[in-house]
Amino acid sequence: MTNSVHPHGRHRAPLPPAHVPADGVPGPRAPQSTMAATVPHAPAGTTARPGSTGHSGSTGHTGSSDRPVSTGQPTKQRDSFFDNAKYLAIVLVAMAHAWEPLTDGSRAAEALYMTVYTFHMPAFILISGYFSRSFDMRSDRLKRLVTGVAVPYVIFEVAYTIFKRYADDDPTQPISLLDPWYLTWFLVALFVWRLTTPLWKLVRWPLPLALAIAVLATISPDIGDDLDLQRVLQFLPFFVLGLIMKPEYFQLVRRREVRLLSIPIFASALLLAYWAGPRMTSAWFYRRDSAQELGAPWWAGVVMTLALFGCSAILTACFFAWVPRRKMWFTVLGAGTLYGYLLHGFLAKGSRFWGWFDDYAWMHTPSGEVLVSLVAAAVVTLLCTPPVQRMFRFAMEPKMEWAFKRDAAALARERAKSSA
To answer: Which intervals carry biased composition (Low complexity) (predicted)?
Structure first.
C-alpha cells in the first residue's frame, strides 16, 4: 500500500508497539480493532501494551479511548515514522485514484500513476505485516481481528453496494460478501494474511515461499474472483516481507546516502513508466488478474511477478527514505488512515458515476491535474482527522463486547481482585 522517536536517524529505534488498529494498505491507541495493521495506528505519542498486536493499511484497537492502557508494565512510545508513512501512503493512494481518469489523455499523468501504483499499496501492506509480527491465536487478538477487519468489511461492502445502486443507477447490483467491490479487497486480504501469520513464523524460507505462491497465482486463471484471491495471493509477499522485517532495516533506509540515491531511482522509474505507458497495461499493478486474463502468455506472469516485486521493494525503500522521522503536523492522522482509505472511495467512485471528469475539460489540463491532485490530498487528509474517526468509529472499530464470551483467565483475575 510510511519520523522516528530518535530523530538522529542512525541509532536503533525502539521496536514500535505491536498493536494493530482497525488498515494494506492499512497503531496503538487503546486497542479496539485489528485493522490498523497497515492502515491505522493510534495517534503518535500514545502508549500501548508491549504484547499487543500491531496495526491497513493499514488496525486493531480494543477500546475507543486514546488514553494509555495501564498494565503495570513498561510501555513503549509510538514511533512517529510509521504514522507518517501511513499518512503519506494514503495520500498517494487518493491522488492515484484521482489521476486514473486523466491517464488516457496525459502521458505524464499515466507515468506518475504507474510509478505510484508500483509502491503505494506494497508500502502499506509491508507496514501491516510489520505490525502483525506478534499476532497469534490468542482470544483478544482474534476479537480485534473480527471487530477491526471482518466487521468493517461487511459494513463497507454493503455500503459500497448500496452506493453503487443509486449513484450509478444500477438497482440490480447485488450485495455479495464473496466478491469485494473496489477498496474492500484490502480488508479481506488483511484478514487472511493475519490469520496465516503463525504459519509464516514456522516455515524456514517465508519470503521465497510467498513469492512462489504469488507466481503460481499469476499463472492460474481458474482462481476466479471470489474474495479477490488473486490480489490476496499476489500481494502476499509484501505482507510476509513486513513480518520478517527488523527495526534496524528501517534504520538503514533512513540514512542520508539512501535518500540521495533514491532521487535518481525515482527519476529513472518515472522515465521508464513514461516509456512503458503506451506499451503495457497498468492492470499488472492491480494484481487482480492472471497473466492469461491480461492477454499475455503464462510465462509473462512469472517474469512480471518477480520484476514487479523487485521494483516495488526498491521504490518502497526509496519512499521510506523520505518519510520524516520526527513528529509532524500530520503524524496524528496516521491513526486514521483506514478511515481515509475506505471513506474516500465514495468520492473517488462518485466522481466517475457523476461524470465530473467528462463534464469539466479543464481537469485534463496540466493546471487542472495539479488542482485535482491537491483536492484529493486535502479530502483524504480531512477523512483521517480525529473528528471523522469519532463519527465513524461505530463502523470501523466497534467494541461488540456483547458478541464474545468473557475470557476465563480475565474473569479469574477479576474475582481474585474483588476478594483481595
So the answer is: 51-65
Whole-angstrom Cα distance, residue 142 to residue 196? Answer: 12
> DSSP labels for 42-105?
PPTT-EE-TTSPB------EESS--SPPP-SS--EEPPHHHHHHHHHHHHHHHHHHHHGGGTTT
Q: pTM value?
A: 0.80
Computed on alpha carbons and rounded to an integer, the radius of gyration of the chain in Å comes to: 21
The average pLDDT across 313-320 equals 96
CB-neighbour burial class of residue 410 (10 A; exposed 0-12, middle 13-18, buried 19+)? exposed
Q: Which amino acid is at 93?
A: V
Segment of 42-46, 47-51, 67-71, 288-292 carrying the highest mean pLDDT: 288-292
DSSP state letter for 220: -
Task: Return the sign of the alpha-carbon dihedral for residues 63, 68, 70, 71.
Answer: positive
Instruction: Retrieve residue 21's grid coordinates.
Output: 488498529
Phi, psi for 341 (deg, rounded to 5)? -60, -50
DSSP letter at 282? T
* pLDDT in the model for residue 76: 60
On whether the CB atoms of residues 151 and 401 are closer than 8 A, the answer is no
Three-point CA angle 199, 200, 201, nearest 5°: 90
Q: Which DSSP letter does residue 371 get?
A: H
Instruction: Please name which of 231, 230, 236 lies closest in space to residue 197, comparing C-alpha atoms.
Output: 236
